[in-house]
Write a structure and sequence with these properties.
heterodimer; A: 510 residues; alpha+beta; Cytochrome Bc1 Complex, Chain A, domain 1; 2 domains; 6-stranded mixed sheet; 14 strands; 17% strand; disordered N terminus; B: 501 residues; 5-stranded mixed sheet; 46% helix; disordered C terminus
Amino acid sequence: MSIKIYQHLIICVVCFVGVFSINNFRTLRAEHQKEVHPSSGEPKSEGSRILSKFKFAPLGFNPPKAERLELDNGVILYLLENHDLPIINVTARIRTGAIYEPAEKAGLASLTGDVMRSGGTVSMPPDKMNEELEFIAASVETSIGRESGGASLSVLKKDMDKGLRIFADVLRNPAFPEDKIRMEKDEAIESIRRENDRPQQIAGREFRKMLYESNHPYSRRVDGTLESIEKITRNDMIAFHKKFFRPNNIIIGISGDFDRKAMIKKLNEIFKGWEKGKNIIPDIPKVKYELNKSVNYVYKDISQANVIMGHLGIHRRSPDYFPIEIMNFILGGGGFNARITSRIRSDEGLAYSAFSSFQTSQDLGMFYVMCQTKLESTHRAISIALEEIERMRATPVDNEELTHAKETFLNQFVFRFTTSASIVAQMVDIEYEGLPLDYLETYVNNIQAVSAEDIKRVAQKHLHPDKISILVVGNKDKFDKPLDTFGKVNEVLLEQPPEISSKNAKNKAE
Amino acid sequence: MAQTKRLISFAIVNFLVIFLVSLKAPANPLKLDVKEHVLGNGLKLLMLEKHEVPIVCLRINFRVGSVDERPGITGVSHLFEHMMFKGTKIFGTKDYAAEKPLLEKEDTLVAEIAWETGKETRDNEKIAALEKALETTREKLRDLAVKDEIFSLYLRHGAVELNAATSSDGTFYICNIPANKLELWAFIESDRMKNRVLREFYSERDVVMEERRTRTETSPFGALIEQLNAVTFIAHPYRWPTIGWSSDILNITKAETAGYFEQYYTPNNAVIVMVGNFKQDDAIKLIEKYFGDIPRQSDPPKVKTAEPEQKGERRIEVEFDSNPYMAISYHISGIDHPDIYALDVLSTLLSDGRTSRLYKSMIEGKRIAVMANAGIGVGRFPETFTFYAAPRAPHTVEEVEAAFYEEIELLKTKPPSEWELQKIKNQLEAGFIRRLESASGLASEIGHYEIISDWKFINTFLEKVSEVTAEDVTRVAKKYLIKKNRTVAMLVKKENGENAK
């Protein structure tokens, strides 16, 4: 049953949204044996005093583990049987991404990922594929993002063979028909044309350009530009697919109601003749760690300023990753009680959403604080965020905050294992990101090891309020104080997408 | 596009599939095996055991939403939901006895400032003095507060998806917690029902105002839908937005908010849903222990206003600094009417998947839109069947509107094929099985249907939809999707009078 989106538009008390999608690899909270119980200091309220006397039985949970193996053709496989329900879920990651496409053909990777599925395969035209899959309530999807490609299959057990066949066919033999290429290009173009309609999208796009050098692929849009999309040809897409979609370049995770032996046999069958590729992954330039203070402004006639501020951060395998996770939780990632959120939202009522984040990627990602506040409190909100970033550098976190953060991570651990599909997907991600394969087993120790000194050290190393880039989308006429108190303001003019035809210019005609 | 995302709701079951499921499912294989227990005070407990992982997914839902409001206090249900995180007499404060008179003083000062500011000739000195006194009071309050303590306690004990939500029909408190922390949840939640304190009320009202700016005022689709509802319903309270009109959010008083709580947050207007790793007998004991002593109260007032029959097409325009969107709504029957099943099939037929009619005709065929969807609304009261779309330039909202009508007329003249109906049934069955994986999803679903009607709706839905024939689909299209019954809303680009400065 489909419930329409707006009457039931459910509005929530918390809503932390990110605008960057590269490798949103979420932290895993792993703890297999140890039980962690809040051992807070002196309870501050009567309620907490009562709760401190509660006794909690140990959870005693040993999550199932996915098995790792490698097929002869180089496919890395994670398997986890679960016979509770007659369904099978497959998730795959492919080493590819928009970072490997030429700048003048930006959008190539993303289009390739879309048309692989929507264009059908050499032996199965798209209409037929859609009908076959939807009639058995199965789905096969593909996509390519900035640093990774993804493919998935969900199918009932009784239709497993058919589902796997189509899944493999889409990976191996996409047809890339011209009509579907045109269709996906047009959709991408419309999506780009509509980008300036939403202030958060403007902020996300422009901020990325400020942080990365313009010749680095991290500075570009994954969707490409109106010009670059038109330069992409069918042959480009075929070549891009052929280069990256190789068995030794893919990690597949399968969970659900299957027999391990039969599954391996089946996979060998559907991947038969799929040849390994050589020198698949091209080099891309390293991100230069160079921070430049800047204050940037985009005019948009709206009642609320969209603020994003930050600078380059860390890559996913940084040795400082765990202390940074804990530090960011305390600074602005940990909900209402995080410092930035608490002051901007809870103390002063300046924003519904105010948070900080370290977005990580293969190379240096971004640290940023984001909030939306009425125009009249723009300057105030930015000042609070700057103060809190500075305080994190200057003063050690207190023990209570640190304990709160660590216990949250450890006690939430069990929710990382709620379904077989999520367990397998985590292992696929760990492998893809190049993290140690015992990541889950060592996670608890890694979190527990974080000290107040570590946090101060990583704060001083990775937070730089004096070299921060600030971007505000809004109408400066109503700001509480001018932005130039933070530094010289650079005004960014939005490019207006060209009208596609005069007919569209006035659609109010009645 | 992001806007096409829907709240996934319920689906179906057929005998064969349920039989497969039943290999693992307990008791009655044909239904979700939910156990009910009603406390003496009227509080209903719905339980579904699921033992794979040691977690419990909990919902406390109240049958109160924006539909229970009136002009002047629109948005109060949602504002109150925010206030529930601000604590109680024993949570969120170091000393409630010291805090109470200060909270009262704060209210008095806020009212006095509003009174003075509203005078024709302002006494600025007096206002300044009052504001100074207010600031002093607030500083004292800050010293006594334990900030966001409930949220912090839950996180620290491992809760996830910690949130609350409000819709036109209900208010939902969401918490998934490690199974060994169930009693902690019962203690905190029962205390929230017994001892809530409206602290930090005024700053939270501002937070909600910011939420409104984000969701509606700076969002083209949000703005369109708000206007559409306001015109589709001329009498029924579905016409105002759940978040409330700006003027109401800014002016709702603490007394109005507290009064609202007294009327609607009663045990006899609430349901608790538990899905996960627990034993029913233990759960009943626990809930009786913590919630059993909350006194039953008189039933909350009923919504009396019914939407009168629409007398003709309504059309509106919304100007916005954005590319165009459009939406068309048709009034339909309520959840207790048998037509709802054929309407559900109709919406699935039109817009679920790449083989759906709207996708094939408008996105893939004519290629005039990048988003084209239809959805059925079900709530406590009769809702609408709604179409919405984003045209692809240079195509216009008018072209998209015409294409929708073309598809609707086709449905009226040519019944859907056997293949289409079978596909829909297959998807509903598979969807049902897939949803059994997630304890959290099941808890939300059970709780949602209990608020708008009865959770058992879930267990009869499949059979009812299986009985829908091709002729039924044609019949409901002819009955509801007619010109006289529709409201058309277009979001058009605002002329830029004032350019970038």
